[in-house]
Amino acid sequence: MPKTSLGKWSVTLAIAFFVFVAVQVLFVTSGERGGEEFFDNWSLAVTGLGAAASAVAAFICGVIALVKGERSVAVYIAIIVGAFMLVFLLGEIWTEH
């Protein structure tokens, strides 16, 4: 487990990412569907934004903790989770649909 405060935040935010994703999966399996726009379904939009924000924040906190000397495996995993989400988000922004 992480020793520094930022390391703990990073791991907690990575766990929050998985919780947001699990809640979103529950919404979708219960019949929730998106609409034409992103915010047409607020429950899916909030869980999606929460997942993305927590993963990116986990990445940022993890990298800062790593620079400050944190060497926990959990922080490395949180950084990987956040990096995947960051790459996905950048791909969504930079590519056409």
Topology (elements, then pairings):
Blueprint: H1 5-29, H2 42-67, H3 73-94
Helix pairs in contact: 1-2, 1-3, 2-3
> Low-confidence stretches at least 5 residues in length (pLDDT < 50)?
none
Q: Roughly how many Å apart are the termini? A: 41 Å
Judged by helices, strands and strand pairing, the structural class is mainly alpha
SSE string, helices as H and strands as E: HHH
Give the tally of structural domains. 1
Helix amount: over 70%
Molecular structure report:
With 97 residues, the chain is mainly alpha-helical. The protein has one domain. Helices cover 75% and strands 0% of the residues. The chain has 3 helices and no strands. The longest helix is centred in the middle third of the chain and has 26 residues, at 42-67. The mean pLDDT is 95.
Attribute tags:
97 residues; mainly alpha
